[in-house]
Design a protein that fits this description.
Blueprint (H helix, E strand, L loop, with lengths): L2 E4 L5 E3 L2 H11 L4 E6 L8 E10 L2 E6 L14
Antiparallel strand pairs: 1-2, 1-3, 3-4, 4-5
Keywords: Plasmid
Length: 77
């Protein structure tokens, strides 16, 4: 399943977890974005609002509202 990264018209669709991590790191660092995905069980589109940052040269993605870490793997299952 594809994930759509949205940021005020600067949108990119990715198809793999690796591609998602690379695009977030390269193009959306220190920004807040929404991730639109479709869970395979329900088929209904969901939106997750996240903050993208870097810590020790590693990608860190946290929920914009709760500040809890986001497991990007769950967007593809």
């Amino acid at each position: 399943m594809a994930v759509l990264i949205k940021n005020f018209g600067n949108n990119i669709e990715v198809n793999t977890l690796e591609e998602l991590k690379k695009v977030l790191f390269d193009k959306y660092m220190n920004l807040s974005v929404s991730l639109v995905y479709t869970p395979s069980l329900s088929g209904i589109k969901k939106v997750l609002y996240v903050d993208v940052s870097c810590e020790n040269h590693k990608l860190v993605v946290t929920n914009s509202y709760s500040s809890s870490p986001v497991q990007l793997e769950t967007l593809f299952y």
